[in-house]
């Protein structure tokens, strides 16, 4: 097949650098971008997700996800080739996880005249609390103090890189946030001028600034986007994240698709996320703050030595403390109290009860109506939980029961579609 003469821009993340917001803007303006000569391969962004899962082998935990993703990357590359002279944008933060061999295959398989890579970087002191919450959203079980302690180990010298550590939190952090490694993987495969690094502006900045920086890196006029969605806010407050951590521990090993379709969403991203404005946030302790500033310095040096085209202000990654940063830190922050956790648990059970009833109605519309008492969600209150020997554990047990009911209903719905 003839090679596409357009350019492909691989927006590879990283995680927690405004990727969800940028992907929302791109998807909302798909037609306007196409009119300007920039295609988004795939019928929707979900096709790009499955393609990256396929090419990076991120489907080992769940055969159903593997089945959905199979052939996704080949399909995406065919879509790019069929665009002829159009440029293409692929935006999927998991591409930052690629090994050098995988990255080389991705570039080689695109069959276009030019491949550009766009990498976002962000102040680590602002990233870490959200990164912990994201880890919990992907079935993590480390508490916030444990996570901070593990992450700080990344500053030590190891015989093996931290991404191979036996400590799951350290391994998670290194895989998600080692920008020096990411720049080395992709930068070594690209001609000079084809690697772009954009800095994420400080929290509170108008999100259009980030969009403008992204457009600058790919050669777009920011005004092409007439539909600008509100930035997605799926972060969890401290109490909700700690509650979900305990739910993850009680759930144990769960198929990834089941977890994603019930615990990650809707329980975390929709139900518990509603409490984010009323709950306190996890705050850095002083030791972790200092680690974050040193990590910023490390990232700055990596960007300078990579030869990447910088878009934005490298000072968005501070290397010294400030009054603003001091307000985000707490030398001795207490963990959420029982009352806060039970309030979140009440919200969780009530929300899951609605999910279960909605899934039952959906199945009945499909003609599946063989229910049993096992599909009833426990109706509990903080007052009832307090009568237990361990009130919090009683609450977690009810949430897990409700989640398992919701998972089973979702599985029945999927199976009914193929029967």
Number of helices: 18
- Strand % is 5-15%
Annotation, overall tally of beta strands: 6
Helical amount: 40-55%
Summarize model confidence as the mean pLDDT: 91
- Report the sheet with the most strands, covering strand number, pairing sense and barrel closure: 6 strands, parallel
What quaternary form is this? single chain
Number of domains: 2
Using the CA coordinates, give the radius of gyration: 22 Å
- Which structural class matches the secondary elements? alpha/beta
- The CA-CA distance between the termini, in Å, is 38 Å
Q: Shape from CA axes?
A: globular
Second-tier CATH architecture of the largest domain: 3-Layer(aba) Sandwich
Order of adjacent strands in the largest pleated sheet: 2-3-1-4-5-6
Query: SSE order, as H and E?
Result: EHHEHHHEHEHHHHEHHHHEHHHH
- Poorly predicted regions: none
CATH class wording of the largest domain: Alpha Beta
CATH topology category name of the largest domain: Rossmann fold
Topology:
Layout (H helix, E strand, L loop, with lengths): L3 E8 L7 H10 L1 H6 L2 E2 L5 H12 L6 H7 L2 H11 L4 E5 L8 H11 L1 E10 L2 H14 L6 H9 L15 H10 L1 H9 L7 E5 L8 H11 L19 H14 L4 H16 L14 H21 L2 E3 L11 H4 L11 H28 L16 H5 L4 H28 L1
Helix pairs in contact: 3-4, 3-5, 8-9, 10-14, 12-16, 12-18, 13-18, 16-18
Description:
The chain has 18 helices and six strands. With 419 residues, it is of the alpha/beta class. The radius of gyration is 22 Å and the shape is globular. The model has no long low-confidence stretch (mean pLDDT 91). The protein has two domains: 4-125 and 171-224, Rossmann fold, CATH 3.40.50; 238-279 and 337-418, no CATH class. A six-stranded parallel sheet has the order 2-3-1-4-5-6, sandwiched between helices.
């Amino acid at each position: 097949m003839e090679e596409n003469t357009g350019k492909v821009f691989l927006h590879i993340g990283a995680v927690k650098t405004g990727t969800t917001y940028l992907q929302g803007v791109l998807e909302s303006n798909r037609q306007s971008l196409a009119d300007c000569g920039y295609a988004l391969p795939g019928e929707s962004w979900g096709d790009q997700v499955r393609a990256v899962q396929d090419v990076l082998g991120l489907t080992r935990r769940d055969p159903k996800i593997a089945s959905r993703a199979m052939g996704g990357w080949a399909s995406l590359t065919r879509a790019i080739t069929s665009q002829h002279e159009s440029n293409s944008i692929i935006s999927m933060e998991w591409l930052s996880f690629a090994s050098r061999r995988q990255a080389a295959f991705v570039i080689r398989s695109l069959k276009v005249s030019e491949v550009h890579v766009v990498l976002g970087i962000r102040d680590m002191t602002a990233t870490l609390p959200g990164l912990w919450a994201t880890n919990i959203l992907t079935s993590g079980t480390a508490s916030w103090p444990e996570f901070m302690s593990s992450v700080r180990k990344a500053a030590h010298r190891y015989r093996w890189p931290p991404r191979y550590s036996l400590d799951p939190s350290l391994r998670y952090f290194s895989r998600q946030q080692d920008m020096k490694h990411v720049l080395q993987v992709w930068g070594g495969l690209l001609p000079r001028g084809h690697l772009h690094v954009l800095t994420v502006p400080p929290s509170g900045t108008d999100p259009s600034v980030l969009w403008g920086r992204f457009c600058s890196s790919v050669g777009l006029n920011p005004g092409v986007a007439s539909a600008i969605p509100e930035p997605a806010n799926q972060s969890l407050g401290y109490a909700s994240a700690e509650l979900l951590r305990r739910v993850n521990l009680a759930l144990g090993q769960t198929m990834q698709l089941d977890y994603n379709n019930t615990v990650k969403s809707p329980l975390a991203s929709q139900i518990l996320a509603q409490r984010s404005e009323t709950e306190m946030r996890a705050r850095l302790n002083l030791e972790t703050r200092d680690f974050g500033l040193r990590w910023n310095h490390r990232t700055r040096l990596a960007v300078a030595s990579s030869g990447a085209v910088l878009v934005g202000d490298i000072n968005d990654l501070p290397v010294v403390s400030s009054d603003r940063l001091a307000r985000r830190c707490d030398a001795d922050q207490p963990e959420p109290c029982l009352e806060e956790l039970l309030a979140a648990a009440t919200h969780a059970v009530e929300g899951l009860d609605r999910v279960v009833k909605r899934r039952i109605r959906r199945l009945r519309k499909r003609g599946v109506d063989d229910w049993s008492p096992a599909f009833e969600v426990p109706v509990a209150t903080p007052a009832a939980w307090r009568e237990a020997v361990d009130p919090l554990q009683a609450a977690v047990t009810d949430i897990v029961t409700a989640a398992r009911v919701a998972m089973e209903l979702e599985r029945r719905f999927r199976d009914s579609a193929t029967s």
